[in-house]
Amino acid sequence: MKLIDLHVHSTASDGSFTPAEVTALAREAGLTAIALTDHDTVSGVGEALAAAGDFPLEVVPGVELSCLYKEKEIHILGLYIDHTDKAFLDFLDQAEIKRNSRNQLMLAAFQKDGFPITMEDLVMENPDTVVTRAHFARALVKKGCVSSVDQAFKKYLDPDRPYYRKREIITPAEAIQAIRNAGGFPVLAHPCLYRLGWMQTEELVRNLKELGLGGMECWHSSNYAEESSKLCRMADRYSLLPTGGSDFHGAAKPDIRIGSGRGNLQVPAEYLDALKLAMFLGQ
């Protein structure tokens, strides 16, 4: 069975491998397609496409946009984005401004309490990276403030922890419309991670479908098999296409491997074929 991974990250946001290295890892894993879906940026897409070259691996230009839904942060994947579209790039620039403002507030709070981290520690010699909470977590580990990235989130960075700061964030409607305008296909990322419960998850899916959502990430490294099955049935009820991805980040999530997640993830290439057909038919 041919396998794909439609949710991977690189150093363009909070992954630890460059886009070219991610592409090489995908080839080594025997995948036939990956989607590079860095947070709020498409800056790594060109490198990934060039690295794929003539190899039998398709690189899907993608993005992962953070949105606010009823005071809960959710993520929308955009697949087959025109990564050169000026209007979309301008949209991402505005999202980056909002993200950077939040990062400065978080950094100031840490420094006020004596944590020895700087902006240089966060960007880690990659000034073009989109800084996320994962960068704070890795800096805290490197400085010896915590023993692991997971501990950094649980102790300091999760939404109910002392150094978390909300940021001005786009709405799901804005995200879905921006993706559609750039020729992309919008997909709800990892629905179970929002811990909404099944009734509220279905309400979320129903609302996003009305806004133009096209698919739902039914298979993800964090899912149990039963959860993925329920999500597939929900996607079918709302005429949404199922997709799947590992959410590979490299060192930031060392137990997740590209293509196979924590060992048992298998996303069939037929999912991508169905998505392409839907886009061709204008769905």
Automatic annotation (TrEMBL):
It comes from the Bacteria. CDD domains: PHP_HisPPase_AMP. Residues 4-69 form the Polymerase/histidinol phosphatase N-terminal domain. It holds the Pfam family PHP. This is PHP domain-containing protein. It comes from Enterocloster hominis (ex Liu et al. 2021).
